[in-house]
Amino acid sequence: MRQTGQDMSGDRRPDAVVEDDALESPADLREHVKTLELRLRKRDEQRRAMLHMMADLNEINKRLGDQRKAMIHILGDYEKDRSLLAWKRARLDKSRRALLHILQDSPGPTCAWRTAAKP
After folding, report:
1. Interior/surface letters 27-56, b for 16+ CB within 10 angstroms, e for the rest
2. Beta partners for 2?
């Protein structure tokens, strides 16, 4: 007699037991072999599908890793540029202040550029 163990998908569980006296006729044996072969093909298709999904996930993971590395390099370059720009801005500000002090300390009307600018 067959014990029909069903899993949630409706397939027989692998631990379903088929007793010897239930498979006495050749037709029962052929039916059982067909059922086993069908389950084997189905599981093999599921295994191949799972391997394809894993390969796709692996490829996506590699691409994400490459993108992450590129983003880290971009952020590093951005930080260097930002630091350089801040340093140049501070240097320009110091130069501007120094020029203002020079202009303030210079004598007024005797300076050539001041007299040329007046009408």
Report:
1. eeeeeeeeeeeeeeeeeeeeeeeeeeeeee
2. 18
